[in-house]
Amino acid sequence: MQKKKIIGLSLATSLCMGLAVAQKTFTVKVNEPVAPIQSTMWGVFFEDINFGADGGIYAELVKNRSFEFFKPLMGWSVKRKQEGDILVLSRKEATNNPRFLRLTARNAVKGDLELTNEGFRGMGIKKDLRYDFSFLYRQAAPGITMHLSLINSKGESLGQTVIKPAESGAAWHKQSVSFQSVAADPKAKLYIWLEGTGVIDVDMISLFPGDTWKNRSGGMRGDMVQMLADMKPGFIRFPGGCIVEGVDLANRYQWKKTIGPVEERQLIMNRWNIEFPHKAAPDYFQTFGLGFFEYFQLAEDIGAEPLPILNCGMACQFNTSELVPLEDLDPYVQDALDLIEFANGDVTTQWGKVRASMGHPQPFHLKMLGVGNENWGPQYIERVKVFTKALKAKYPDIKLVNSSGTDPDNERFNYLNGELRSMNADIIDEHYYRSPDWFLSNASRYDSYDRKGSKIFAGEYAAHAKITGGTNNVNSWRTALAEAAFMTGLERNAAVVNMASYAPLFANTDAWQWSPDLIWVNNLQVYGTPDYHVQKLYSLNKGTQVVPLTWEGKALAGQDSLYATAAVDEKTKELIIKIANVSAKAQNNVLALEGVKKTATVADCIVLKGDLESVNSFEKPDNIAPQQSTVAVKNKKVALTLAPYSFTVLKVKL
């Protein structure tokens, strides 16, 4: 065992050691900072696509818990002794989620009156974990006992308990019970059977694992949040994405309907439910258990700046293109003003008081806000002007993020880019889903951008190896390496680019609509793709100031298939160099460090490398993963061999 460790270390070390072949010398001017790197430079973009929220990071295990899907019993199977023992009814009183079930038991025993919930492509159950069950109910008189079990595909119990609804009367009551699992299963179900005699109305039937993030009741899936926390992102953009726009305006995301008591948050169809006929998802809805309060809380938890995106009065232009007339736009603008108050307002304000009532009296310190998502055309510019005037009048320090459309280089983009710059827009959001070759050829995209004009947010990007915008793409090392090369250009141009995020973030391997994606999950597991490791390396090693790295007087942006950037971290007193070698040959180089009196004699070296078609998986989550070693620093020079198809991060203590 010890011998294997030594061999592995030797191989890792050789990745960064200089070899006796022809060398190229790169110059790094450590004492000539070019531009500051914003703390928000590398972040994450969250959208509820690919079952990223319900069935994903939101840890609820019961699908259609309040019977509000188009088909009220979707996700449920029922068994009854006679017709009418299970009825779907609606409340007479005003409520956002009116439906409930009325269950009538007549001397019921096991097998007479049953409900089974299939979960989101099954329920991932862990062994020896606490599970928290809750539901709302009302009954005229006690008389029913509910038996709860988690069962596997054979009907065998994985854990069980009993709950006896004790309250009676016309009012709704909530009751909870916890129980322990005795075995694991990735595709379990929740099985409920009733014993006794009586009539009981039930709603909001819920089940959460006991190991949610920060052990919050009704919270998020811990392993998925941990993947984000490990990246230490500078920001999190939410809630999308196209769900901000909706198929039509009735289907748009409305943040005020996602806060307050969970049982009062109004469910809507997720627009990805119907978007891809070849990836049908008729059971895809948004319960908003993960709402705007939880998004802000998540950002705070992982040390990221919140970046909410709001609808600007435009539905998705690929779907209905529905517009709110300009004269009717005031409620949309007011929603934006109210959101800033919800995030930052004192507890004496209307919306600050709502935030405090949810358990967070301190402000969330919102600094930026997105107006519209991927909208385009003159109609978008008209609405942006209305929003900008109103928001800047009341909150001049809030930075506004504006859309440059769906593509990085067409007529739409050129029009929006010109109009927004003429308005002195704070931040322009550029999106690019393109081939790996596009990313390589555009590493110098921002070299000529105006340093004093609007800043850039690379808000959604990913290299698509097969069909751009399709669903047949894989997260291979080819795509990740192309992104790593492109990102050297983003960092090198930090004077222009202030923010960047890969998209989409999560995908459920059993219920996805779009690929590629940064992180893949099933009901019990999670793994980061090669693209994830690239994003993480950039985020953990961003530095605070860009410094020049040149070869023969020019920035290294594709010459001899090499792409590089350099930064100084003033906090850790380190020089951080990132180099992508996208060629099939090893390349031997020397890094000459100028403008520094002294360095450590050894530098840390982190390498990602592999065959271009290599991927990670649940079976091999670390197939492409960082390998760490050290390399000597002599006379302020580093001899560095770059492996074929590799991305290297070098850290030199100053």
Please, could you describe this protein's structure?
The protein contains ten helices and 35 strands. The radius of gyration is 27 Å and the shape is globular. The strands form six sheets. Strands 4, 5, 6, 7, 8, 9, 10, 11, 12 and 13 form a ten-stranded antiparallel beta sheet that branches. Strands 3-14-17-18-19-20-21-22 form an eight-stranded parallel beta sheet. It has a seven-stranded antiparallel beta sheet with strand order 2-26-29-30-35-32-33, sandwiched between helices. The protein folds into three domains: 2-34 and 546-653, Sandwich (Immunoglobulin-like); 44-57 and 213-540, Glycosidases (TIM Barrel, Alpha-Beta Barrel); 76-209, Jelly Rolls (Sandwich), CATH 2.60.120. Strand 19, helix 7 (411-422) and strand 20 (427-434) form a beta-alpha-beta unit. 18% of the residues lie in helices and 33% in strands. With 654 residues, it is of the alpha+beta class. Helix 4 (330-344) crosses helix 5. The longest helix has 17 residues, at 378-394.
